[in-house]
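Hi L., both proteins are below.
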Amino acid sequence: MKNLIAVVLSVLFLFGTSYKLSAESLKIGYVDLQKALNQSATGKTALEKLKNDIEKENAVLKEREEEIKKLEEELNKQGFMMKESEKERKTEEYRRKGRDFERYKEDTRRDIMMKEREMTARIISELIKLAQKIGQEEGFTVILEKGEIVLFASDNIDLTDKLIKRYDEQKK
């Protein structure tokens, strides 16, 4: 991050010395990519789909967990009355289902995290390309990402709402 700040400041310095740009001709803006992701129609739809996937998987996990609990209760209540071979079979089934459940839970968590990363990366990439296009069309010298290096910026140079509007229009 310090390197990025140094590069931006160096570029601004070079523009200032080699082209003798005045403060009026230096046009700077910023975007809040996280806000654009969360508030764009595409971002909202993707997040809602991800939320639905999580709810479905949670229902499957709950069902499998209840099945394991029933098996455990059966072993605890009736285990002493079972034949040794039956008890061993049920105990092994309980252990196997427990291992399978933990494996499935971890795989599900990993899959959901991967889907979220892929979805976020795709939308953020599209938003960055659009921000670059806006920058070129409107003659910006620099457009910064709010969350990375902008400590303070006036709202009148915030391009986030414009970015969201253009992105939503582009996706229709």
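That was the first. Here is the second:
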Amino acid sequence: LLELGYRVVGFDNLAPTYSIAKKRHNLDLVYGYASGEKQFQFVEGDLRDSKRLEEAMNLIPIDAVIHLAALAGVQPSIADPQAYVEVNVTGTLHVLETAKKLGIGAVVSASSSSVYGDNSKLPFSESDPVNHPISPYAATKRAGELLAYAYHHLHRLSIACLRFFTVYGPRQRPDLAIYKFARAMLAGREIILYGDGSSRRDYTYIDDCVDGILKAMNWTLAAAGSRPRYDIFNLGESQSVSLLELVAMLEKNLGIKAKRKHVGYLPGDVLATFADLRHSEALLAYRPQTKIEAGIENFCRWYLQEEKGKPWEILK
């Protein structure tokens, strides 16, 4: 957004879900892209604080909101479902209500492939039934989609909900599998594999994810005001990769053989994800450019050159 010349207000609570030092480091990188203080402003605040959120959304004239803030992850949602409802559902409500109040007509909201649950029909299409979430996280993401539709219908907001499929790449969260595997392998420690390694995921490279977000933003802006619209879009690569295949790619690019420990599957996890992108391509012209093999190569290069040895990277 900054490279495209937009003025941007960032809003985040810098929660200690992983290293705050890493979050501030990433924030410093964002400031480095800005041409000055007026182009990028950051407000530290919590979605649950509607007053603070409104202050942030009132700093400059805003055309569109890109709502990516959430508590993420299936297992933590099982441990603390109340927090997930407060942040992901009530927080999303606050974003939509504030957009309505301030006359902001375009909203892009992050959903998740987890809403598909343990669907045996592959690939997943936006028209598939999503009435059986198998984790609190998935349920909160589906609730966010439904709230978004209600605000579109009642208040004429133009909204795109994006179902992300396992986003990865440089500067990714350190609490996710690819980062955790790389860190453990380089430290000579074993990696934990849930199940026999046959579970499959559709991975979305970060550059393709950003491209999809920008195209969704333009789609909502084109219809804001006069003819508002609402839709849901898958953002993935449309390739399903097994856990063992992923580990093999990391081994190849890091030059290290992984020490593997297989344990049982976790509750709430699904056996496979796979994105049908026909709808996203037709309406957004979304076409992912980075295959998983190239994406893992890029991630490993970044990790070895820029991330290795950082205070938050070192295993204690």
